[in-house]
């Protein structure tokens, strides 16, 4: 079954709105890490991410976060074959995190609030039907788009919502729009290695995101060689690689102990 494209889109005139939304802090928290940590995340997600991507992380004992949009489960998209119930079971069983990416891959910058919440519930129900027993605590805005209203009203079940604005999560951050860095595009390896160096110096939280993982990936996917290179570099540097939900819980625990 073919589906509508899932590729990142940018509607005309969105940039000023996006910057205003990013400046609106809905869930502030201060990052205080004893050492740097990286979260590798995969959006939508293709089977290649669930197989090749997971294998690369697991080879060094790392775990990641897969943001599932069940509207494409079992379908064929421009990323290739998409995940199914078996992938959910294997990833969760191996200790990886499954997050929410809406059911219908909605542009949250243009979707009515009630419609979005209903779509989130539909996605959670679909994942439960697939056998997922763990609670969804991590969300990713499809296309990286949201609004200040949605950030303020992010359901309490979600500890975080990840965006697509680049940068490190350090100092005072917004858990309702975590920064994330693309593992695709021009000079992706150079950018990723530079970010790794910065995270090491600053003891920051570095989040990467991609879609498919293949020898010849799509425009929005990571090459197998690229992901292997970044994971190997992080491992060699002694950097922890953990799921988004796990890192966020740790940061919140430290923040709570500092400001009881």
Could you give a short description of this structure?
By secondary structure, the protein is of the alpha/beta class.
Kindly describe this structure.
The chain has a single domain (26-258), classed as Alpha-Beta Barrel (TIM Barrel), CATH 3.20.20.370. It contains eight helices and 14 strands. β7 (138-140), α5 (148-152) and β8 (160-162) form a beta-alpha-beta unit. It has 260 residues and is an alpha/beta fold. The strands form five sheets. Strands 2, 3, 6, 10, 11 and 14 form a six-stranded parallel β-sheet that branches. The longest helix is centred in the middle third of the chain and has 17 residues, at 113-129. Mean pLDDT is 93; it is low at 1-5.
Which key phrases capture this entry?
alpha/beta; 260 residues; six-stranded parallel sheet; TIM Barrel
Please state the structural category: alpha/beta
Q: Give the CATH H-level superfamily.
A: Glycoside hydrolase/deacetylase
CATH architecture: Alpha-Beta Barrel
The general outline is globular
- Give Rg in angstroms: 17 Å
| Structural domain tally | 1
State the helical fraction.
25-40%
Largest sheet: 6 strands, parallel
- H/E element order: HEEHEEEHEHEHEEEHEEEHEH
Separation of the first and last Cα atoms: 52 Å
Low-confidence stretches: 1-5
Number of β-strand runs: 14
Strand content: 15-25%
